[in-house]
Amino acid sequence: MSDQAVSEVDTPPPAAEPPREARRGPARLVRKAAWLALLVVLLALPLYLDAAWLKAGQYMMIGAVGAIGLTLVVGQAGQLSLAHAFFLLAGGTAYTVLSGPTGDERVAGFGLDPGLSLLGAVVVAALLGLAFAPVAGRLRGIYLGVASLALVFLGLYFGQSAEELTGGTSTGRTPASFSLFGFPFTNDGPEISLLGVPIRQAERMWYLFLLLTVLAFVIARGAVRGRVGRSWRAVRDNEAAAAVMGVSVLRAKAGAFAVSSAYGGLAGAMTVLWFDILKPDESEFGTYGINVSIAYLAMVIIGGLGSVPGALVGALIVNGLPQVLALYSADLGWFSGTGDGALTPILVSSFVYGAAIVLVVLFEPGGLAAIGRRLTRLRRQPPEES
Amino acid sequence: MNTFLQLVVNGLGKGAVFALLALGFVIIFKATEVVNFAHGSLVLFGGYLVVVTKDALGWAGASLAGIVSAGLLGLLVERLLLSRSRHADANSLALLTIGVDVIITEEIVRRLGVTLPFLGDAWDAKPFRLGGITLFRTHLVALGVAAVLITAFWLAFKYSNWGVAMRAQAENREAAALMGIRSSRVTATAWVVAGLLAGVAVLFIATQDFSGAGLSRGTHSIALAAFPAAILGGLDSTAGAVVGGLVVGLVEALSAQYVSFDFSKSAVFLVMLVVLVVRPSGLFGTRERTRV
Amino acid sequence: MKRTHLAAALVAVLVLSACSTKAGDSGSSGSDSSGVKTGKGVTATEVTLGVMTDKSGVFKNLGLGVTQGNELWAKDFNAAGGVCGRQVKLEEVDHGYKADTAKTLYPQIEPKVLGFVQLLGSPVVAALKQNLASDKTTAAPASWSSELLDNPYVMIVGTTYDLEIIDGLSYLQEQGLVKDGDTIGHIYIDGEYGKNGLRGSQFYAKKHSLTLKEVKITSTDSDLTNVVTGLKGAGVKAIVLTTTPTQTGSTVGANKALGLNVPVLGNNPTFDPALLKSPAAGALDKLTIVASSVPFSADLPKAKDVAAKYKAAYKETPNGGVPYGYAVGEVWGAVLKKACDNKDLTREGIAAALKQTTSASTDNLVAALDFSKPGTPATRQVYAATPDASAEGGVKYVKPLFEAPEAKEYVAPHQK
């Protein structure tokens, strides 16, 4: 983050683009092959996993999309944002309103095609992010972080009061189920099977979310490696120097916020599709509350600020652990203590990611991404080419 | 008119406690430039120690135990975690405190279970009426205690060795080190003091008068109010912390009645936002100037 | 270069093909030897009912009580012979009051159960609303909001929140504590629970020309002193609450401290015996509670029976969830028996049997229930009680089951 007067502690080089020499030669191929193998596995998983596990996996993908966006604004551009939950709510509401039925007396809807509505949700969230950018421009560091918290509270209030849009906190409203060019992502529509496995709602949603996550990943990677990423990093490291070099600081910050909120909006639309309901929270802790903003921040810290692959792993841990533990414990009877003081999957996961944050900052502020880089550097010694 | 006066009384009373919380917050920031997201867990920890020692030591002894242990926790966090993170900058350390906060809060909430212990035995739920206004004893004692502690702190800050050392370090860390000021000692003391203040604050927060609830996750959320209070006063200004706390208390009380209750939470943050847009470093904070 | 890509992909495919896909998972329907149709959750010897409860989150006390009530019922039901020659088994999962955990756990438990005897938590019920409808699973949510009644698979055992408030206000008026034309206040949590109660007070206020001061709060607000200050300024003669017990404590405490001292009315979820040990205990004399399911210590033969069985089986401090959980079980028992008579123990069969249940008796643990009119609450009766430290369970009766005339006229949101 920006503005250090004098720093006598040596900060390790924060996440930049992957070093040049790693982008050519055999190392690059190995990495590409690894990503490809991962993709194949992910494509095949619905053939093996039950609906409950697919559901858990989809939830991790929502986290991944949101975390990628947050790591761009916090890690690459150096703007601390605790407002991510607000953009989730905005995206979810926008998707539901845009795709909602036009004739309903209780809630508003525009009747648009779900695919278009998804795009619309992303755009709406981005615009909201852009609207907040001037405030972000005036504030530094932690002041910005706490100011962004204000958005979450505003979101809470908006969710409760704008009932024609959000459906209100007592019943919420149901979002239109997703369909692409007429192909529904529910149990209706044409019966498809792959290798004898019927591809129904859970499997279809898996593929949809996977597609969105891959898109999010590729776009973010491109931004980080391109001009945009360089301008962000320049602003993060030294605003004055960046201005001198001709980077429009305000534009860079605004852009970072817009992009990150766009990602947040997408994650929000995915959230309402996952829950099959849009229901604003009753308090500041809930599906769109402070706890969620902190969870996304945790994903980003654990993964390594600014690292896009790191954000994926962070999401797996923070969003995935409680789900996986809950499923296992239901199966195996772990953590089945009741009454006061019981250890439960949620509690255990909270401890794990709290501890992960502490350990990361203590020993490797670059997060898992830095650990990953360190490992690959170790493996490449002695160097095979100069 | 009566309603308005009552609201002001309610607001100032709560504001005094917010001021105590914000002050602890600011002390840490001044000494280390670290924003302590774990302040809420210091509050919870102090309260929890009161709960477990109450039977053995009685309320007065337990309260003392709570205050001291909150201070010790602050020391522990600083010595074991923050000072060990040699190569992390202030912002990363702030993020570390988030992790610490999650762990400590979850563990204490787990241990509390469904009990909601109230901690203000000496002054809780003993209101008295003056004219048409009800004065809550908790608020009055809090105002008194806060006034004493803030004055004591301010005097120490201005005249004691520690205060001078801390101001020097906040101004220019390297020069202060060159002058022989042990930065680690200043930092550690700052965290201890912040912990002590948190331990005092919880005795007023976990009461029927102040929060209507005993020690619980809600106590942690109330400590969250320290953020807008400290921020709008200016993170490096102790006077700002006090003003900020009182402002937050008043805004909360008045907006609850004159706008709507559910808006009052957002109102506090909104006021903070407005102040920040006008003065980006808070009301009394030092402006950062960048010369190109 | 391309070779490495191909190699990696091939390896992945080989590994995956070594494991078997989930193709070939079959359903579990059919009929048994006596011609009773069966489906998911029913085997030749067992009928499995699901319990999705909170064992570790904010409502774990209530969750535990209700679950234990369910278990006590299942034991008694099986001892009496079960249904269609089968014993009832309960499959319990803990979602910790988190909607996302519940959403993920649901697909895991759903294939194993015929229906749900407990679904605790309004965010959980909201998240699973679509699933219940598409899987045709009948469920008894531990939530009494009449807004849920648009789902034909929902079985609400008891009076809904709106009707509880109407009955309660009628009781206050009958006692002379409220008169036509008075101003009253209603503090409500903005959510399924609080808003539904508000609907009731709005209806009653209109009928009796009362000025209603509505104050919306969130579920985590705990200090309501400023709210009560405002209500005092507005000159209210009574305060209605659809809030949490902590918030109730704060309200009655402020009611006394500020010198307002008006009657306070709350429904079932507003009270918890722990309040009797809090600093607000001295102000609880002004509180009246209305509820449709009896307190643990009720002086009724069945309640006493359940209480005795509870004490023999469990050590925790009991709460009102226990008789409620037992009552829900009894309703399920009646529905199961009817479905058995209809020779249809499938999900559809249960739904049909529910519609035919015009009078499910729970031996007065809850008022008699009529599920035959979808969209309409199954009962409109409540008990009135006041807090009492000497009673087990913390409350004592002041008026047995009654239904107010205004309650008969009230039209619930999904009533046809």
Could you explain how this protein is built, in words?
The complex is a heterotrimer of chains A (386), B (292) and C (416). Chain A has 386 residues and is mainly α. Chain A has one domain. In chain A, 66% of the residues lie in helices and 2% in strands. Chain A is built from 15 helices and four strands. Chain A has a two-stranded antiparallel ribbon with strand order 1-2. In chain A, strands 3-4 form a two-stranded antiparallel ribbon. In chain A, strand 1 (179-180) and strand 2 form a beta hairpin. The longest helix of chain A is centred in the last third of the chain and has 27 residues, at 249-275. The radius of gyration of chain A is 21 Å and the shape is globular. Chain A starts with 24 loop residues before the first helix and ends in a 7-residue tail after the last helix. Chain B is mostly helical and 292 residues long. Chain B has a two-stranded antiparallel sheet. The longest helix of chain B has 44 residues, at 39-82. In chain B, 59% of the residues are buried. Chain C has 416 residues and is an alpha/beta fold. Chain C folds into two domains: 33-159 and 297-379, Response regulator (Rossmann fold, 3-Layer(aba) Sandwich), CATH 3.40.50; 161-291 and 384-409, Rossmann fold, CATH 3.40.50. Chain C contains twelve helices and 14 strands. In chain C, the strands form three sheets. A seven-stranded mixed sheet of chain C has the order 8-7-9-10-11-13-14, with helices on one face. In chain C, strands 4-3-5-6 form a four-stranded parallel sheet, with helices on both faces. In chain C, strands 1-2-12 form a three-stranded mixed sheet. In chain C, helix 2 (60-79) links the parallel strand 3 (46-53) and strand 4 (87-94). The radius of gyration of chain C is 24 Å and the shape is globular. In chain C, 61% of the residues are buried. The model of chain C has no long low-confidence stretch (mean pLDDT 88). At the A-C interface, helix 1, helix 2, helix 7, helix 13 and helix 14 of A face helix 1, helix 3, helix 4 and helix 6 of C.
